[in-house]
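Quick log. Single chain, no ligands specified.
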Amino acid sequence: MSVFESVSKGLEEALAFADGDTSGAKVHKVSVADVDVVEVRQRTGLSQAEFAKSIGVAKGTLLNWEHGRRHPTGPAQVLLALIAKKPSVVQDLLRSA
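-> predicted structure:
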């Protein structure tokens, strides 16, 4: 099978999956624990403004998470779970960049 045929087949499978055809599809579900955003931020020692800036979200977004009006999802949820395990992870990565 050529590279073109392989890519074409993959795209066809992706389109079929998007249309609801899950036959033969490998679905990977990742479960990320919910975190207490206030506790995570406080463990970093950063203010709300500093923490929001360090993870690339608006301060208003962080406030909504902290007050329970909204909940982090997707990449933000994963990043917060990482920070919960190692509060210095963002500073460590940014320092080395």
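The helical segments are 3-18, 37-44, 48-55, 59-66, 74-85, 89-96.
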